[in-house]
Amino acid sequence: MRQLLLFAVVITPHLLASATHAQTHFETTVKNRWKIGLEITAGSSPVTGITATVPVLMDWPEQHVEVVEENLSPCVRRVTYKTLNGGVKQMTISIPKLEAGDTAVAVLTFEIEKGFPAEPEDTKDYLEAKTTATQLRKYLLPSPYIESQDRRIQSIATEVSAGHETQWAKVSAIYDWVRENIRYKFDTKIKTSVAAIDDGEGDCEELTSVFIALCRASNIPARAVWVPGHCYPEFYLEDKEGNGHWIPCQAAGTRAFGRMPEARPILQKGDNFRVQGHRKPLRYVQPTLVARDAGASPSMRWVMEKVGGE
Predict the structure, then answer these.
(1) Residue 190 and residue 204: Cα distance in Å, rounded?
(2) How many helices (H) and strands (E) does the chain have?
(3) What's the whole-number average pLDDT of the chain?
């Protein structure tokens, strides 16, 4: 997965508990620790009025997180948190003044309990979702680089998903089509789902995007899941009792459909984020840095590293 560290300087529930719309059966669980946050260094002159943001970890049905250490420099006046579009937790850091050459740190150490979702035992009873809630409808619409309403996407989705007796078989056919028709090849430049189909190649982002686009074109909610250095998709179906389940699959890498043996922590879920200061929706929420007065541009380092565990 491509993670570009972009910024602008402007002058002026427990893991094993049940959860709504969640798959809660796990093959195993692992524990590890990660440090996530920012380091900001002033240039040759002081910087005032700094506001920085960084996405941090949050709980998911397959992930429980706990902050076990906070490393905040004395110059950090305030730290607040908010959740964006139900898919990412954003930490906002306020620094009134950073002297020339000084470095401010705002880094959290998380202990993470991560479950490996297991494939459901009886897949024939999984049905098309009937839920019309707003938080689900957005996963049927186009997103940045995911053109689910494109005519070619619609045509492929109709062809691939036709003739299957169950919803599970339909999604499985989409999964197989993506892995058979999009060869894995890493590239520093991201492609749209249509471009990836045209080229017949892409990395984890493109394979994930194509799978999501074809699912959405087949009226199956789907979204991206982001972990450090990688992403994969998950799709949404309901069981015969009407309970919704988000079900993962590994679009790029070792085949894993309906299960996810991934120990790295979940950073974000979703692929269409509305973020203050951006006119267009974002595919992935990046760290940001804004300063009121900066004679020389400060630098920022995004801290994201494993520091212990399995």
Answers:
(1) 10
(2) 5, 15
(3) 90
* Cα(186)–Cα(196) distance, integer angstroms: 12
What's the rounded Cα separation, in Å, for the pair 27 and 41? 43
Tokens 């090849």, residue?
185
Alpha carbon distance 114, 16 (integer Å): 10
HSE-CB at 223 with a 13 A cutoff on CA atoms is: 24
Map residue 218 onto helix, strand or coil. coil
C-alpha 205/C-alpha 157 separation (Å) is: 19
Mapped onto helix, strand or coil, the DSSP state of residue 215 is: helix
End-to-end CA distance of the chain: 22
Residue 143's alpha-carbon distances to 73, 235, 280, 295, in angstroms, are: 38, 15, 11, 38
- CB contact set of 118 (below 8 Å; sequence gap of 6+): 25, 26, 27, 259
Residues with Cβ within 8 Å of residue 236, at least 6 apart in sequence: 21, 129, 136, 139, 220, 221, 222, 244, 245, 246, 247
At residue 131 the predicted structure's pLDDT band, cuts being 50, 70 and 90, is: low
Coil vs helix vs strand at 54: strand
**Which residue segments constitute the domains of the chain, with CATH numbers given?**
30-116+275-309 (2.60.40.2250), 119-258 (3.10.620.30)
Q: At 282, phi and psi to the nearest 5? A: -105, 145
Report the SS3 class of residue 191: coil
Higher confidence at residue 64 or residue 276? 64
> If DSSP codes are grouped into helix, strand and coil, which group holds residue 278?
coil
Kindly state the percentage of the chain with pLDDT values over 70. 91
CA distance linking residue 173 with residue 136, whole number of Å: 22
